[in-house]
TrEMBL record:
PANTHER family hit by this protein: L-CYSTINE-BINDING PROTEIN TCYJ, MEMBRANE-BOUND LYTIC MUREIN TRANSGLYCOSYLASE F
Keyword Mitochondrion: no
Keyword Signal: yes
Keywords: Signal
Highest taxon of source: Bacteria
UniProt domain Solute-binding protein family 3/N-terminal: residue ranges: 59-287
Source organism per UniProt: Methyloceanibacter caenitepidi
InterPro entries: Solute-binding_3/MltF_N
N-terminal signal peptide: 1-28
Protein name: Bacterial extracellular solute-binding protein, family 3
Length: 289
């Protein structure tokens, strides 16, 4: 899940999605339709932001944490690696600056920016109103869709308010996913669990008909040992910032708009050059959109 500023996780991820100030409206695609990664609104078309003045920018000191694979983690030889690590390096390459990437505890990320020990935090930090009180953020560089999951032997094919009416759908208690279900699928029998993991276990055991949760979390669960290959996605992705958040961005010290502008430019260029897609496919071979 993506990390919240207040502490570790709430739904494991990765995702190609939207960078842009414009919120992505909720939508779903029918089964059988080709589902393509969603790219940031600001990255669509031929118009890219001009290169900012980079005079004086010689090095970016990125900070992350180290226990959130495949985003950032230590590999078998002890090297810090992952999607966020490679994206940070790609940003430095675009800007032609020296790149320093170090790991610290999750709770130390924002204090390190405030004290000047680091320039930017790239650690799957969700952009929230609370987070914006402590730091400035780039445009989002990924967001995670909500998805439905069913057992592979289930005959549920189409997902709509009508087709799931009366079905028991597991969801994490007091989550945006629960609120979304109650708003747009009022006929469903919502079963609130203490965690997404508990809902997934109930689906595996056949106690419920569907799970509605973070798409990345579900994708990793499908491919992991715990699922025993029981389940798969049904229906399409759902994106709605009112329920699922604005996505993930790179945090910098409050007021450092110059660095924000440089990073936004670099993120656009990383996408335009095809590097973002390459990294996305490398670390997330199973499309969760």
């Amino acid at each position: 899940m993506m990390r919240f500023l207040a502490g570790p996780v709430g739904a494991v991820l990765v995702a190609l999605a939207a960078v842009g100030a414009v919120a992505v409206a909720a939508h779903a695609q029918s089964p059988g339709t080709e589902i393509k990664p969603i790219v940031p609104d600001a990255w669509q078309g031929d118009a890219y932001r001009p290169k900012p003045d980079l005079a004086g920018l010689k090095k970016i000191r990125f900070i992350t944490d180290s226990d959130y694979p495949p985003f950032h983690y230590y590999d078998e030889v002890g090297a810090l690696t992952g999607f966020n690590i490679d994206l940070a390096q790609a940003i430095c390459d675009v800007l032609a600056v020296e790149c320093e990437i170090t790991a610290t505890n999750w709770s130390s990320l924002m204090p390190a920016l405030e004290t000047g020990e680091a320039d930017a935090a790239i650690a799957s930090i969700r952009i929230t109103a609370e987070a914006l009180k402590s730091a400035d953020f780039t445009l989002r560089y990924y967001a995670t869709p909500a998805r439905f999951a069913a057992r592979k032997d289930s005959d549920i094919a189409q997902i709509s308010p009508e087709t799931v009416e009366g079905l028991k759908i597991g969801v994490a208690k007091d989550s945006g996913h629960e609120a979304y279900l109650k708003t747009f699928f009022p006929g469903a029998a919502v079963a609130a669990f203490e965690s997404s993991e508990a809902a997934q276990k109930a689906l595996k055991e056949g106690a419920i008909d569907l799970v509605f949760a973070d798409g990345i979390t579900l994708a990793f669960w499908f491919n992991g040992v715990e699922s025993a290959n029981c389940c798969e996605f049904r229906g399409g992705p759902y994106l709605d910032s009112r329920f699922f958040g604005e996505g993930v961005g790179i945090a910098v010290k409050k007021g450092n708009r110059t660095l924000v502008q440089a990073l936004n430019y670099a993120l656009e260029q990383v996408h335009a050059r095809g590097t973002y897609e390459e990294l996305f496919l490398r670390y997330f071979p199973m499309n969760f959109f």
